[in-house]
Amino acid sequence: MFSDWWLNLALDAGVIALAVALDRILPEPPARLHPVVWMGRATSLLVHYRSTAPAISFLHGAAVVVLVVCAFAALAWLAMFGLAALGPVAYLLGGAVLLRTTFTVRGLSEAAHRTRRALAGNRLNDARESLGSLVSRDATTLSPPLVAAAAVESVAENTTDSYVSPWLAFAILGVPGAVAYRAVNTLDSMLGYRGPNEYLGKAAARLDDIVNWIPARLSALMLLASGATLRLPVATALRGMLRDRVLTESPNAGWTMGAMARLLGRELEKPGHYRLGEGLPEPQAEDIDRSVRLAERTALLGLLLSLGVLAARHAIVA
């Protein structure tokens, strides 16, 4: 990139700092310009024709994962190479804009607050509808406590998916790494479901589990640290998290959701699947607001951690 390692470090630190600032002050890019939308369209095109044979479906899905992840990572690398050739300012500004498309803190908080406001205003149907921007489950029959639980669960789980994982990917592999992570996560969200097309999405689901394995556990620890700043029962939350982490189908989600349940002192239930913090009171609308406060403090810690990893990477390769 540039000749001096300290300049490279300063520029990359500036890229992530500016990207976070853009996330706070600007809305999401329009769909026609958003790389995640392009990832989704590419995936839909590549899986349009599907086989019912499990082995062929698995190989098809694995090929789609390799193609989409590698293609978008390569495009991001080419973009950053071109920006670097234009000079430090272009690299900083262009890199921040590209990185901004791989994560969101503001979007997660705003989606959760929409659900909270609807629940607090006794507009249950509106709350169920707004929940669609947070979770994929059918919310049409959920009671108010279950709507609140779903929103809190999503806020907790997405501390990993929405920002900690892409930031760490950037810290280790630059903007192409963050783009590659977002491609993996997008593929999992589109294909990684049980059902008739389960084998098609197995590769995406397993790869998503692998890339989030360490970030999910770090996110859970940072949630606990955030709870300490709010004088919440961290020791109790740690014990409860270690018990409840195995209750979810995902090997990663139970860590952050279990920590959140115990920090808030609320039972988080997905009917027919799991019950975290069993026996605790049911969550209410105000608990969504509390979860957002914890998540945003976790985002700050995640940013500091990512800057530390970034500094270590540049020191090693200098």
Description:
The chain is an all-alpha fold. It has one domain (7-317). Helix content is 74%, strand content 2%. α2 packs across α7 (144-191), α3 (54-86) runs antiparallel to α4 and α9 packs across α12 (285-317). The longest helix is centred in the middle third of the chain and has 48 residues, at 144-191. The mean pLDDT is 94.
Which structural class best describes the helix and strand composition? mainly alpha
Basic shape: globular
- Name the poorly predicted regions: none
User: Over the alpha carbons, how many angstroms does the gyration radius reach?
Assistant: 20 Å
Q: How many domains comprise the coordinates? A: 1
Helix percent band? over 70%
β-strand number: 2
The average pLDDT value, as a whole number, equals 94
* Largest sheet: spatial strand order: 1-2
Order of helices and strands: HHHHHHHHHHHEEH
What's the short story on this structure?
By secondary structure, the protein is mainly alpha-helical. The chain contains twelve helices and two strands. It has one domain (7-317).
Highlighted features:
single chain; 318 residues; mainly alpha; two-stranded antiparallel sheet; 2% strand
Helix/strand layout:
Layout: H1 5-25, H2 35-46, H3 54-86, H4 88-100, H5 106-120, H6 124-130, H7 144-191, H8 198-211, H9 213-229, H10 234-244, H11 253-264, E1 268-270, E2 274-276, H12 285-317
Antiparallel strand pairs: 1-2
